[in-house]
């Protein structure tokens, strides 16, 4: 399928790994340019352009080609997620909240060669991807970008019909050279994948963006485990009764999270740092190695490719839930340290109360990521229950699927 733009012909087609990989990697590298005079993240996909899609239930990658040159690319995936909640009456006097699901598409990795911008190539790629979304039954499409990326925001909101939807926060914490001390008042229990799925479905299935195929996430080989924090003396690994009995009579406070091994998918590298910042980071590492008993917060070497773990499924209840989350984050930090990761990251709703228990560095984090959304069809399955999702009020929490990172 060819699209004409004045004197050139732009062909948009499906990515073919056997002949496109090298050219796509080259384009990806040249497009990874951050804001002027600011730190930016370079993504090394380890030679696999669809590494960020492989774990999604349905995905597609398209490339834009002029002659023999690949000048643009776009990736997309589709899954079923929670977009709201309704009420179910199992007995005449008993009602409970149930999730309302929709088929959601996600656009990621839109790139256009710097020498071929302002030619409408990005718009062509988005439109072709949306055609695939609609052909496969997606009701909504969304994308994520930095709020400061004005070119991306303008393309999607002005030309593609998307609207600003949610502004979650990306919280990033460096992995230090020493272990984080975890409160003795907290017991951490590793859950089996079966128990984790049951707990998530019972407590978090009505959370916005919760994936209906949560079992595929938890059982994935990249998921390193799900961990439950409870007050010391309430439960232990030996006395854990299982999620059903636990939820019938939980302790006064508890929290849960899962860990995803993004290090096996791609690596990151911080670019654009001044010599002063690089020297400062190196100095903290040297001092930490010289005086390890001080347990100084040293900055890992983020100026060369590093891996990271992503924390997902954060949730919990009770007056001490923030302390429980802090203990789980410390536990996750120690896991990441043992795996040689540079940072631990997570993403939460901007008004998420649990964020106060998540350690992070402001200079590495993004306080306002931007998600934009578009309704793809006129009729939709949940019309009578929640109406148009694009016009809904944000909830306190969102469920960030690690497969989308």
TrEMBL record:
The keyword Transferase applies. InterPro entries: Acyl_CoA_acyltransferase, GNAT_dom, Plant_NAT. GO terms for molecular function: acyltransferase activity, transferring groups other than amino-acyl groups. Gene3D superfamilies: 3.40.630.30. It holds the Pfam family Acetyltransf_1. Keywords: Acyltransferase, Transferase. CDD domains: NAT_SF. Belongs to the acetyltransferase family. This is N-acetyltransferase domain-containing protein.
